[in-house]
Amino acid sequence: MTDLTRREAIGAAAAVALFVPGNALAASPGLDAIGKPRGIRFGTCLGGKGLRDPRYRALVAAQCGLIVPENELKWQAVRPDARSFDFRAADALIAWATSVGLGVRGHTLLWQKTERYPKWLVEHDFGPNPRAEAERLLTGHVSTVAGRYAGVLPSFDVVNEAVDEKTGGLRETVLTAPLGAENVIDLAFRTARAAAPHMQLVYNDYMSWEPGNELHRSGVLKLLEALKKRGTPVDALGIQSHIGAPGQGGGVPFGARDEKAWRHFLDAVTGMGLKLLVTEMDVNDKLLPTDIATRDRAVADYARAFLDSLLVYPQLDTVLFWGISDKYSWLQGLTPRPDGLAKRCCPYGMNYEPRPLRTAVAAALAAAQAR
Ligand code: 9MR
Description:
This protein is α/β, with parallel strands linked by helices. It is built from 14 helices and ten strands. Strands 1, 2, 3, 4, 5, 6, 7, 8, 9 and 10 form a ten-stranded parallel sheet that branches.
């Protein structure tokens, strides 16, 4: 990835300006520049495909102030086995971001779902003292990764998705079996703090404002309250913000929301002294009609309402989308729309053209009070 130099990025930016229909860079100032005077950073996740695509890189550099590696810091990526670490993919992303003046945050030190653990960990022989071995593996991982990026990544999703939305309880995994679920989460946060004392430590999850999220929200509140009570060092809640078509429950129409319960949840979280981040926003338009104008309008209006509901909190200073353009969005690979058309879920389209969603995000950022 040595070719990803500042000069190249600037060249690629010029190429986007020349070739993108609707001229993405002409939509200036960029979203981060709009947020900045209000104390809000705007960004996106970035993965290998986006990094290898000069037009995508240019769009990220023009619109964002911050990126987060989409997969490159997960156990799956950095832990080929129980003994070794491989940081090449993460470092390539960080090197490029740094070369064009973008900040980077980390995701994630522990994705607390068995199906997201590497195969070797699920099959690991924990030996005669499983508790000690589980603790050794977990703390070894967290201290190595957080320690390596201390001073480089100012904020990290320490634990991701530990609450089971179907029960509100904590998920069980091969690590929680010997250690207990609460201990696993505590250990992850405490080890991260010891390895990187100045890093913002985030609990990240996908509870949202749609009906059907009640148990998930109350489970997350319970977890955060317990962490605070035990003095576990957690600084912020990452609100993933995969909104739109319900991922899990089904049967909830697009746009359905419970604003009162949502406010109650956010008040409770901020009342604990925690900061808020929007960490992975996109709008799943799976349930919307084929007509493009109708779809884009509904997506933009829904996103605006959601962002407004969050930006009233001065504790929120970061808005990240999970993809700046639809091109490499994870949603394209998820359950397809009934008409088989591509999803229109990100601020920019397949051909890097700005969408009404982009206008809505810009307006929400512009309307926010300075923090
Ligand atoms: O977008 C990510 C996709 O490329 C990966 O295959 C997947 C599994 O690692 O993770 C996706 O990102 C997820 C994020 O890490 C956590 N919140 C949900 C995101 C979408 O599934």
